C-alpha cells in the first residue's frame, strides 16, 4: 500500500496503524479492488477501501473494451465519490458512511464504513420473501427521500444501462423493432412527472443484510442519478427472480413497494398521481433494461418469456 494512501486512511480514521486484510472483490473490468483494512487505535475496528486504478488496457468479460466504455467507467467513479461526499441517507435506506475520498492521478480511493461491523454482514445469492421486501422497502425509502431532488454532480439520468451511455450495445442488438423504439422508450421514462434519485445498480449483490434478513444496507453508487424509481425496482426484481416467479409474484411485490413508498413520501406529494404514473412506467422500465441486455449479452438468463411479453406490450402501446 502506498504511503500516501496509508496516510489518508490513518488520518481519516484517527488510527495509529493499519493492516491490509482480505480482498473483498476485484472491480469490474480490472479497474481496481475493494479490500478490508484492519485498524489499530481507532474507533473504527475496520474499514473498507475502494481502490480504483484505471488500467492501461481493460479486461471486460463481455469484450466491450471501447473508449465509450472507459469514459463511462471513469465518470462512474467520479459520480460515486461525489455521491458519498455530498449526499446522505437515513436508517431506513442505510448506506455506509464515507470517511474519506481522494484522487491521485489515475487512482481514486474511497474509505467507507465496514457494514459487516455495523451488523450488515450477510450476503445473499437467493432470497426469500422477507429479504425481497426488505430491499423493496429500502428502495421505497430511498426514492421518497430523494423525490424531486436534482441529481447535482451525479448522472443526469441514472442506471448503468441508460440509452445515451450505451451506443455500442444499441448498435449490436438484433431486435429491429425494439431498436427503433429505444429512443421513444427512453424519452417516456425521462419525461415522467415524478422523478427521484435512483440507485442505478440495485441488484441483489449490492445489498448487505442483517442476520435475520429484515434490515438491509446498500453499496455501489457508481450509477446513481436522476430518474423514475421503477428503474431500480424492475432491475432488483429481475436480479433475484426467474420468469415464473416474476409472473406469479411481481404484482404483489409492486403493491408492497408502493405501500412502503406511500408511508415514506412527504405529505404534500400527490401520491395517487405518483403511483399511477410509476405503475404505468413499470413496463417501460423493464423493457428499457431488456433493450440493453439484448445488445450487451444476447444469451443472458434474464432474457426470458416474461421480459419478452412486457416488451411486446410496450411495442403495442407505442403503435397506438
From TrEMBL:
InterPro entries for the chain: CHK_kinase-like, EcKL, Kinase-like_dom_sf
Name this protein carries in UniProt: CHK kinase-like domain-containing protein
Entries under SMART domains matching the protein: CHK
Highest classification ranks of the organism: Eukaryota, Metazoa, Chordata, Craniata, Vertebrata
Annotated Gene3D superfamilies: 3.90.1200.10
CHK kinase-like domain sequence ranges: 110-267
Amino acid at each position: 500500500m502506498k504511503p500516501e494512501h496509508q496516510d489518508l486512511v490513518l488520518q481519516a480514521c484517527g488510527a495509529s496503524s493499519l493492516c491490509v486484510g482480505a480482498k473483498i472483490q476485484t472491480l469490474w473490468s480490472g479497474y481496481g479492488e475493494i479490500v478490508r483494512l484492519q485498524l489499530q487505535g481507532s474507533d473504527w475496528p475496520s474499514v473498507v477501501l475502494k481502490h480504483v486504478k484505471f488500467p492501461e488496457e481493460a479486461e471486460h468479460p463481455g469484450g466491450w473494451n471501447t473508449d465509450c466504455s472507459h469514459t463511462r467507467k471513469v465518470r462512474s467513479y467520479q459520480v460515486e465519490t461525489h455521491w458519498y461526499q455530498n449526499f446522505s441517507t437515513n436508517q431506513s435506506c442505510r448506506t455506509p458512511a464515507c470517511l474519506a475520498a481522494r484522487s491521485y492521478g489515475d487512482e481514486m480511493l474511497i474509505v467507507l464504513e465496514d457494514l459487516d461491523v455495523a451488523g450488515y454482514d450477510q450476503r445473499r445469492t437467493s432470497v426469500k420473501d422477507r429479504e425481497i421486501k426488505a430491499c423493496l422497502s429500502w428502495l421505497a425509502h430511498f426514492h421518497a427521500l430523494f423525490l424531486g431532488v436534482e441529481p447535482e454532480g451525479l448522472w443526469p439520468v441514472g442506471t448503468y444501462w441508460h440509452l445515451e451511455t450505451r451506443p455500442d450495445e444499441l448498435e449490436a442488438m438484433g431486435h429491429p423493432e425494439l431498436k427503433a423504439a429505444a429512443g421513444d422508450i427512453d424519452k417516456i421514462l425521462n419525461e415522467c412527472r415524478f422523478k427521484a434519485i435512483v440507485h442505478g445498480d440495485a441488484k441483489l449483490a449490492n445489498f448487505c443484510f442483517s442476520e435475520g434478513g429484515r434490515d438491509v444496507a446498500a453499496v455501489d453508487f457508481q450509477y446513481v442519478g436522476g430518474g423514475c424509481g421503477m428503474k431500480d425496482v424492475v432491475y432488483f426484481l429481475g436480479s433475484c427472480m426467474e420468469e415464473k416467479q416474476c409472473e406469479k409474484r411481481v404484482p404483489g411485490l409492486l403493491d408492497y413497494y408502493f405501500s412502503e413508498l406511500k408511508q415514506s413520501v412527504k405529505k404534500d406529494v400527490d401520491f395517487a398521481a405518483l403511483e399511477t404514473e410509476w405503475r404505468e412506467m413499470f413496463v417501460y422500465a423493464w423493457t428499457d433494461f431488456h433493450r440493453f441486455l439484448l445488445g450487451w449479452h444476447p444469451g443472458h438468463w434474464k432474457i426470458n418469456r416474461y421480459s419478452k411479453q412486457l416488451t411486446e406490450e410496450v411495442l403495442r402501446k407505442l403503435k397506438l
